[in-house]
From TrEMBL, chain A:
<protein>
    <submittedName>
        <fullName>Peroxiredoxin family protein</fullName>
    </submittedName>
</protein>
<dbReference type="InterPro" id="IPR027396">
    <property type="entry name" value="DsrEFH-like"/>
</dbReference>
<dbReference type="Pfam" id="PF13686">
    <property type="entry name" value="DrsE_2"/>
</dbReference>
<dbReference type="InterPro" id="IPR032836">
    <property type="entry name" value="DsrE2-like"/>
</dbReference>
From TrEMBL, chain B:
<protein>
    <submittedName>
        <fullName>TusA-related sulfurtransferase</fullName>
    </submittedName>
</protein>
<dbReference type="InterPro" id="IPR036868">
    <property type="entry name" value="TusA-like_sf"/>
</dbReference>
<dbReference type="Pfam" id="PF01206">
    <property type="entry name" value="TusA"/>
</dbReference>
<feature type="domain" description="UPF0033">
    <location>
        <begin position="7"/>
        <end position="31"/>
    </location>
</feature>
<comment type="similarity">
    <text>Belongs to the sulfur carrier protein TusA family.</text>
</comment>
<dbReference type="InterPro" id="IPR001455">
    <property type="entry name" value="TusA-like"/>
</dbReference>
């Protein structure tokens, strides 16, 4: 049976996006079964508009040059790769209701679910991470 | 070493060398050898760990012409 990796993404900055999607993509490329539950600000990371311009932490804007110099892929590119590699994306229904967001506001290919949807996957995961 | 396929992942940052290696490996058959060229310094440990976790065998790795080169046999 393959390794299962369960990730909770609950923050919405650019650094958060790289932490989540680098681990998820690397895991999926190593034949792991990966699910990510996006909740609260984490929803920014899969929002069609927001994920193209995620904010750097205050005072860290100068890292933009470092990202360019290191040839780090843009977040939409990384998300596309994650989806292509079979990473399952679950958006939190409750947060969507609170923030008045619809499934159409997000990138294609996502699932919408509650906490139990994620917990059902995470209960026998080999690796569980929270960002 | 004679490789069945060579991929160039030079200039790419983590996790791209791994993603590219995985995609290339998917196209090979068991026992065939993939040669990977990378400049990401993390790739040295990452590709070794990737091969181990994915059931492949890292036959050799060395630094040559300013790049890290790996030869991985598909499991």
């Amino acid at each position: 049976m393959s390794t299962k990796v369960a990730i909770i993404a609950s923050n919405g900055g650019l650094f958060d996006a790289y932490k989540v999607f680098n681990i998820a993509t690397a895991a999926a490329a190593t034949d792991a079964e990966v699910s990510i539950f996006f909740t609260f600000e984490g929803l920014n990371l899969i929002h069609k508009q927001a994920y193209q311009q995620l904010p750097m932490p205050a005072g860290r804007e100068h890292f933009a040059e470092g990202f360019k110099a290191a040839n780090v892929p843009a977040i939409p590119e990384l998300v596309g790769m994650a989806v292509e590699l079979g990473v399952k994306i679950i958006a939190c229904q409750m947060t969507m209701d609170v923030m008045n967001l619809k499934k159409e506001d997000f990138i294609d290919g996502i699932d919408v679910g509650g906490a139990v949807t994620f917990l059902d996957f995470a209960k026998d995961a080999n690796v569980t991470l929270t960002f | 070493m004679q490789a069945d396929k060579v991929i160039d992942a030079k200039g790419l940052a983590c996790p791209m060398p791994i993603v590219k290696t995985k995609k290339a490996m998917d196209e090979l058959g068991s026992g065939q050898i993939l040669e990977v060229h990378a400049t990401d310094k993390g790739a040295k440990n990452d590709l070794a760990a990737w091969a181990k976790s994915s059931g492949h065998e890292l036959l050799e790795d060395r630094e040559e012409d300013g790049a890290l080169k790996f030869w991985i046999k598909k499991g």
